[in-house]
Prior knowledge:
The active site is at residues 25, 66. The chain is α/β, with parallel strands linked by helices. It is 48% helix and 10% strand. The protein has two domains: 21-35 and 116-277, 3-Layer(aba) Sandwich (Rossmann fold); 38-114, Orthogonal Bundle (DNA polymerase, domain 1).
Amino acid sequence: MNTINKAPYSFQRRYAGQVKAVICDWAGTTVDFGSRAPIMAFMTLFENHGVAVTEAQCREPMGTEKSVHIRMMLAMPEIQEKWQAVKGLASTEEDVMALYHEFLPIQLETIRLTGGLIPGWKQVSDDLRAQGIKLGGNTGYNEQMYAVVAEVAKEAGYEADVNVCATEVSKGRPYPYMAQAVMEKLEILEAQACIKIDDTETGIEEGLNAGMWTVAVAVSGNANGLSLEQWQALPGDEQEAIAVKARKKMALSGAHYVIDSVAELPAVIDDINRKLASGERP
């Protein structure tokens, strides 16, 4: 009887080290409280064509690459009906790309207007670097849009170690390719040593598909949608009601953790380090 000798080692490598990298989305996660820049740009874009869209419609595809976002908005029955009423024909792929090219300068301007750091992120990012944790970024913005994001963030005191745009990979979120490309740039082997942080469901799905720990931010991003000034102007009870709704929404994304903003990240990293030390994986 033939037998197969078992190898004296396993290919299932058990990682019990510390968190090595944090990979963050930008708008709504590390900059642009309420993720206002894309919404302002999409609303202006469609209004320029006589098609009124709501903020909720603009937010539904958030996290995707921007031409995909436009395509998904045009596929919404209400928007498509308005488009045909104005244009006389159903939208085409040529319309999508024409809108995308029109969108670019509008988006660049709104990024400059709303690109401030999320409160607390400067101190948290400095502390993470002091611990030896690498900081990567990825985004549904293209390279030109990201260049403006990076410029505004740098002026406020923050730079990511590396970044990957959706237009730099074959497919953006929810595919894991951007997060994996950040890992490659950071020269990190273990996905379980990485944390993906995002304010959209599709961004969390990206991290899950990449085999990483995932952290959803609720109040600072898309699930809230208010600017920092609007948020701070609300009384405490209204803030809490919005926060509860936003936390519930982001919990449905399947994220391992839900926090209000990246200011709360250090406690999450401590808990993940504890889990890794005991042999747990995402």
